Amino acid sequence: MDEALGIAEMGAGLELPLAFEDLFEAEHARLFRALLLVTHDAAQAEDLMQEAFVRVWEHWDRVVRVEDPVGYLFRTAMNLHRSALRRAVVAARRTLRPPAAHDPFEAVIGRDRAVRSLAALTPRQRAAIVVTELLGYSSEEAGAILGIRPGTVRTLTSQARAALQEWKEREDV
Q1: 32 alpha carbon, distance to own chain's centre
Q2: What is residue 13's DSSP assignment?
Q3: Cα 63 to chain center, whole Å?
Q4: How many other C-beta atoms lie within 10 A of the C-beta of residue 105?
Q5: What distance in Å separates the CA atoms of residue 27 and residue 43, rounded to the nearest whole number?
Q6: Low-confidence ranges of the chain (pLDDT < 50)
Q7: In principle, which of 7, 18, 24, 84 could form an S-S bond with 11, CB 3.0–4.6 Å?
Q8: For the chain, what percent of residues have pLDDT higher than 70?
Q9: Cα(141)–Cα(83) distance, rounded to whole angstroms?
């Protein structure tokens, strides 16, 4: 502990030039513990600590002249942590966008198209397609419901699909 105070005093008084290696030796364990408390993640704390030391080392000629190089190191590390948090929030916002607003007019337009397309069918085709496609009955079950043979249901359903495709192309939907 006395060694860390000596390092800070050397940087503050500028009597003896503070060596980067001395700062690293004196502060790396303490900075790591502080970052571990802040991040709750040893790997992230280690990364932030290393990045802070790299940034301080890159600007060592200026840092050695500041009043408190140790404070500068810790401030750099905390700023890196805050920047990482901001980037995480931005990434989360991009990823977790709320669903697009529901347009009530689209639902009305869709229902209108469905009604108009079904109106283009004969009553028997409309009944066959509604019972088989919309209600999900098999051709045998639909035949029993409609009072016709299953083969007739299949024929009517096929004709209805062809008529709907024609209507779709004609209406340019």
Answers
A1: 30
A2: H
A3: 38
A4: 8
A5: 18
A6: 1-16
A7: 18
A8: 88
A9: 64
Residue with tokens 């030796």: 25
Residue 151 burial class via C-beta count within 10 angstroms: exposed 0-12, middle 13-18, buried 19 and up: exposed
Token pair listed for 15: 């009597």
Of the candidates 42, 54, 43, 52, the one whose C-alpha atom is nearest the C-alpha of residue 82 is 52
Helices 20-39 and 42-58 pack at an angle, to 10 degrees, of 150
This prediction's pTM: 0.48
**Distance (Å, rounded) from C-alpha 56 to C-alpha 68?**
12
Phi-psi region of 97 (alpha: psi -120 to 50; beta: other; left: phi over 0): beta
Q: Tokens for 152?
A: 């007739």
Cβ-in-10-Å burial (0-12, 13-18, 19+) of 38 comes to middle
DSSP string, 26-56: HHHHHHHHHHHHHHS-HHHHHHHHHHHHHHH
Supply the pLDDT for residue 26.
Answer: 93
Tokens of 83: 């920047």
